[in-house]
Design a protein that fits this description.
By secondary structure, the protein is an alpha+beta fold. It is 42% helix and 21% strand. The structure holds guanosine-5'-triphosphate. The site of guanosine-5'-triphosphate (GTP) has 16 residues, from β6 and α9. This is diguanylate cyclase.
Amino acid sequence: MSHAMLSSPILAALNSGVIVVDDEYNIQYLNAFIERHGNLQLAGVLGKSLFSVFADLPEAWLKRKLMSVLDLKTPAFSSWEQRQYIFKLPHLRPITSSSQYMAQNCTMLPLETGQHEQPLICILIEDATDAFVYQQHLSRTLIELEKANRQDGLTKVQNRRYWEEQLKQEIHRAQRYQHSLSLILFDLDKFKDLNDKYGHLGGDFVLVELSSFISSLLRDSDLFGRYGGEEFGIILPDTGLDGAEEVAERICRAVADYPMLFNQQTIRTTLSIGVAEFVPKQHFLHDDLIRCADMALYNAKRSGRNRVCCYQAGETDYHKKAN
Ligand SMILES: Nc1nc2c(ncn2[C@@H]2O[C@H](COP(=O)(O)OP(=O)(O)OP(=O)(O)O)[C@@H](O)[C@H]2O)c(=O)[nH]1
């Protein structure tokens, strides 16, 4: 293949990279695109090893690829999805991306040469940075959407739908592996009065503040969700009734002692908390566990609020809700 053909104006003007190497990986040609992005001149690298000119190439991998192109006389490919880039070339876009390097689709082609001429391989480098950045945005958006789908919009703890799904899964796990599992349900005391006194924004502020404060008191493995207006649930995997009661007592005391500053006013509130333990028996569903914790919660309301009540086995009905 003549050098004149390799340096045709079309190759020079191409908006993709072209590098030609021989069977010893020495550079026989590279076009203006590579000169520009790689900050080098063809004259300065002609005949030099590809691997000495481009430091950081995945040498063993690329040699294997190029060898197979020569041996099989068929093209080989590498897409940015498999390997973000082969040649460490900076991209020239004023865009924000997690990478400063050009994402690339590369094609390695065997070039037809005369029988007695040295075999050549052409490496085509297509700039795929736009696709890479678009894909990054898309993945980030999907992660955010997925998170939003699980979160309560106001308090950022799990929303009811997701939290109940978690409870079903944890019950399934506890059944299967005979693990203990407990549930805490709590409700803010006299929240209606708080709303009346500080306005709905004050009420919202308290829900957000307490959610964040209570989250900080829990283990990473505990699952905290908003069950309804001012009612929340915490699933405690691998925790029996005594352990759950201890956690509930700690939360109850910490919240009662937690002053919240809203519009230069200090707000204090308390919780009524019900605790129930999962009973590993057949047909015990997540609804049953919620019902047991709910009974205990209403007992806590009934017996004066700002306290923890545990569900006692055998209780079968709600005590009347306190006024
Ligand atoms: N600010 C605010 N208030 C809410 C929200 N969801 C529910 N509420 C209010 O919470 C109050 C709950 O009142 P009740 O069910 O009577 O209970 P309570 O006043 O807390 O009294 P006890 O539970 O018996 O201690 C209602 O006034 C609801 O409007 C919310 O997202 N933001």
